[in-house]
Amino acid sequence: MRRASRRAPAMAMAACAVALIPLAVGGADDDASPIFDVRLPAGYRDWQLISVAHEAGSLNDLRAVLGNDVAVKAYRDGTRPFPDGTIIGRLAWKYVPSEENNAIFGQAQSFVPGAATNIQFSVKDSRKYAETGGWGYGQFEDGKPNRSKALMETCFPCHARANKADDFVFTRYTP
Amino acid sequence: MRRASRRAPAMAMAACAVALIPLAVGGADDDASPIFDVRLPAGYRDWQLISVAHEAGSLNDLRAVLGNDVAVKAYRDGTRPFPDGTIIGRLAWKYVPSEENNAIFGQAQSFVPGAATNIQFSVKDSRKYAETGGWGYGQFEDGKPNRSKALMETCFPCHARANKADDFVFTRYTP
């Protein structure tokens, strides 16, 4: 891991940290989320399933939550807080009716994933992300990080409202 | 694999096949689906994700479709018909609102998995299941096969209404 990526990710420090990175290195950071420096984890689509959900309202999506090996083991063992190295990935797709299935089933009942909306990752590193509960965040669209610092600043304040006993994670494991 | 399990699974032959199995062997069959002799695959919960869905109406569930390595490779490569050895698993849970999430998000938008309903498997064996499009079926509740022959007799007639070009499978892979 690059030494620069070990910097403290506290939101208050973000502007300073960015200012310290030479422009030539800054180019590489286009592949990482602002503030938290989270990159798209290799092979995440092969990870095991933690759970699924439907968010209605303006999100209007179907979602799957996957975890790397550390995350899935911690979920299954009930280990909290999650150990360093945990990565939880939330994939989401537009919530669309399946006209094809509905025609076969004879009623409007089937909803399936449409186009991908975005993928979010929560990365546990209790030292690097000490000021945000040990969690770093990233959102990716079409394989690229969303580079909005304002968006990233919304991650932890919302997760902080989840139970501390759940280590600021919303999703429960579904056997 | 037991020799008895290689019998042709045609629905019309099921009564004869069962009649030919001695009672002592019949006891072991309590672990398999009727007609198709499908058993709960070891380690299926570790399989990779194919897709997710919501079925409304009387099913009223959230579901995840997982696949063994053969299934996932075939989905990703677009291989049709699916090769022998393919197993597709459909897990489903009651569709329930998350009061906890809704309180945090400030609106009723979040639906999560409740209690498991059942798990269904589609097993590809073009020789064993020649008379049902190459597919054998099983439904499991609390880890045990549903032993209703009448239920199993509904599987292929419904799947047969899916496109033959999709090899009688409803679920598409969601990247």
UniProtKB/TrEMBL annotation, chains A, B:
Residues 1-27 form the signal peptide. InterPro entries: Cytochrome_P460, Cytochrome_P460_sp. It comes from the Bacteria. Keywords: Signal. The keyword Signal applies. Residues 41-171 form the Cytochrome P460 domain. Pfam families: Cytochrome_P460. CDD domains: cyt_P460_Mc-like (cd20753). This is Cytochrome P460.
